[in-house]
Amino acid sequence: MNEGPNIAQIASLIGDPARANMLAALTGGRALTATELAAIGGITLQTASSHLSKLEAGGLLAQRKQGRHRYFALADEAAARLIETMMGFASSRGHLRYRPGPKDPALRKARVCYDHLAGDFGVRMLDSFVCHGEIVSDGENLSVTDKGRAQLDAFGIDLSSLASNRRPLCKSCLDWSERRSHLAGTLGKALLGHMFDQGWARRSEESRAVIFTPEGERKFLLQFPIDP
Amino acid sequence: MNEGPNIAQIASLIGDPARANMLAALTGGRALTATELAAIGGITLQTASSHLSKLEAGGLLAQRKQGRHRYFALADEAAARLIETMMGFASSRGHLRYRPGPKDPALRKARVCYDHLAGDFGVRMLDSFVCHGEIVSDGENLSVTDKGRAQLDAFGIDLSSLASNRRPLCKSCLDWSERRSHLAGTLGKALLGHMFDQGWARRSEESRAVIFTPEGERKFLLQFPIDP
DNA sequence: ACGATGCTTCGATAGCGATCGAAGTATGGA
DNA sequence: TCCATACTTCGATCGCTATCGAAGCATCGT
Fold first, then answer.
1. C1' nearest to CA of B67: which nucleotide?
2. Per its record, what are the GO molecular function terms (chains A, B) (predicted)?
């Protein structure tokens, strides 16, 4: 017994409702201040501060001081994937906590996951890349083919500028609403950023939803078709 | 706030050290009795019983009565994947709890994950399938090609008999020691079972390790080669 | 320099849950 | 039938931690 990594430690960090709410909110990719996170968790600032320092010590969060504000964000993409994985499992077991509202369908359609596109549109985009042979997958890691490189170049994304030693270019990330994978990594981030730049879509102010313009949606479906 | 699945509930289930130890032990795929699990968790039978009923209510465990024994096992493969994912994250953050010993290298080399092969050998096997075009991956799910079907047939595994409506044939599962994917699903199970049947390897009695015979290891490396 | 804002630290409280002893239920064997 | 084994349920205890008030520290604006 007692072999291997200590999962109880991080699980208990996520296991507190206030902390879980904060983490879920940070899955939206935006860095939030301690005051904002306290409101999200439904607790006072003092309590939130205690929680946040524990989460940081546990390697789930990273903080950045900026003036008198302190911004908190998920430590990295692996942390975001862990949270999304747990969401997927929880929803598959019926551990739901829905407060059904108009935002829900929008979230399922398209939302931000850390810094890339998730939801129905995110899954479709990766499907399109794969079924056209622009991205291939060897197990967990994805890689871009020459055909994909040319396609992305035409779309306006320069792969060579995305190279990073700290973070993989492509990574698959399990989608909790679709239960399939979407594209993460620096390429996933760049693609979402490009869509924002092109005016195809914008972020919702109060949730993780990504709202496409009618024109943007048309162009998205044209750019990432799915053939049988 | 408060949207989406309730991750705090399952996270707090895993967050208790005694429960985490039990779950980690069950990742070995064997069903264990309440008494055995109590010993693993380092608690009395009464406490263990309370824990086990909570884990079952949370959808993580399934129990099977057999005479006066009650066998507990992970509910399904998704539960096993969740635990392995958490192990991967925990070890990447240095949340280790090693009791270094001779078993450790054996576990990294080859071990059981639920009912399929994990560790260095598990990752190698999937790599071999993929780099020979016998299995292709479209995002999360893997699928066997015609070439792969023939290869497996020659190896002695009949794919058509593995079809199941309850569980996918192929699934990728993240390996906590290698941080790469290995092959899960009914095919992963069948492959490991076949190796046991052929006498290539056997299970360790006291841990999750899979111990290959020298002859079995030679045949394994020959059967699942990796070319550049 | 001074107050205001954002956040952390300290200290005390309160409540939840892990734990175990004791008693109760079910199954198997003699 | 009677005892032993395997497990669950009940009840009480105890420790841990989430929580918040109050005070302290840092930064910004003026």
1. C27
2. cadmium ion sensor activity; DNA binding; DNA-binding transcription factor activity; lead ion binding
Count CB-CB contacts under 10 A for residue B109. 17
- List phi, psi (to 5°) of A207: -145, -175
Q: Give the CA-to-C1' distance from B64 to D13 in angstroms.
A: 33
Tens-place pLDDT, residues A213-228: 999 999 999 999 987 6
* Shortest CA distance from A101: residue in chain B: B3
Report which residue is nearest nucleotide C21 when distances run from CA to C1': B46
A34 CA → C7 C1’, Å:
8
Q: Domain segments of chain A: what residues?
A: 7-75, 81-223
Closest CA to B58 of B1, B8, B18: B8
Question: Which carries the bigger pLDDT value, residue B101 or residue A10?
Answer: A10
The second-level CATH assignment, the architecture, of A7-75 is: Orthogonal Bundle (1.10)
Sign of CA pseudo-dihedral B146, B152, B155, B156: negative
Confirm if B46 and A55 have CB atoms less than 8 A apart: no
The label of the residue with tokens 């075009």 reads B133
- Find and list the nucleotides of strand D having atoms within 7 Å of a protein beta carbon: 5-11, 17-23, 26-28
Contact B6 A123 (CB under 8 A): no
Enumerate residue ranges in chain B where pLDDT < 70: 1-3, 96-103, 138-141, 165, 178-179, 228
Orientation of helix B17-26 relative to helix B77-92, angle to 10°: 120
